[in-house]
Design goal:
Layout: E1 4-5, E2 11-12, H1 27-34, H2 40-59, H3 71-85, E3 93-97, H4 105-111, E4 116-121, H5 124-136, E5 142-146, E6 158-159
Parallel strand pairs: 3-4, 3-6, 4-5
Antiparallel strand pairs: 1-2
Helix pairs in contact: 1-3, 3-4
């Protein structure tokens, strides 16, 4: 279990010193401090999703209006906490149930381009956002499905 704090910037602490200082780093510096081996493509994708989510959040409520200014700390980095402690093997199939606007699935799909992610949500407008964001940043390993989980059939190595 990864304890997190939602007040101010997030603080992730798992007993190994994994945490960050309040407001000291840019969004990408923050992500790269935990994941220093990102490719140029991954860096570009992570940089692009912030403005995309901000744009979509003005149209529909993807994340809390108060939270959009902390997207990287509260949503992207929290999503990537799974990657820090549970690396996914190539060709795994992962199901993200109740993905909403694509968390944790989109950040994890960026981090693991060789893993297949199915993002499932019962709200059509949220799945539309997932599809548009994934397309805009060139994610080829994401399949977005508008469906209730109890109606979905498939086999997955992991459900998140």
């Amino acid at each position: 279990m990864v304890p997190v704090s939602r007040s101010g910037l997030c603080v992730i602490s798992c007993g190994d010193g994994l945490h960050h200082n309040r407001g000291k780093k840019t969004n990408m510096e923050l992500i790269q401090s935990y994941f220093p081996d990102l490719s140029d493509k991954q860096i570009s994708q992570f940089k692009a999703i912030g403005p995309l989510y901000r744009e979509w959040n003005e149209k529909i409520n993807v994340v809390s209006r108060k939270d959009i200014d902390h997207l990287y700390e509260h949503h992207i980095l929290h999503s990537l906490a799974l990657a820090k402690y549970n690396p996914f093997a190539p060709d795994m199939s992962i199901l993200d149930v109740g993905t909403g606007g694509g968390f944790p699935g989109i950040p994890l799909a960026i981090m693991f381009p060789e893993v297949h992610f199915t993002l499932l949500d019962s709200t059509a407008k949220k799945i539309h956002v997932v599809t548009e964001v994934a397309s805009a940043i060139g994610l080829e390993n994401v399949k977005a499905i508008h469906m209730r989980v109890e109606d979905h059939e498939g086999e997955y190595a992991m459900v998140i």
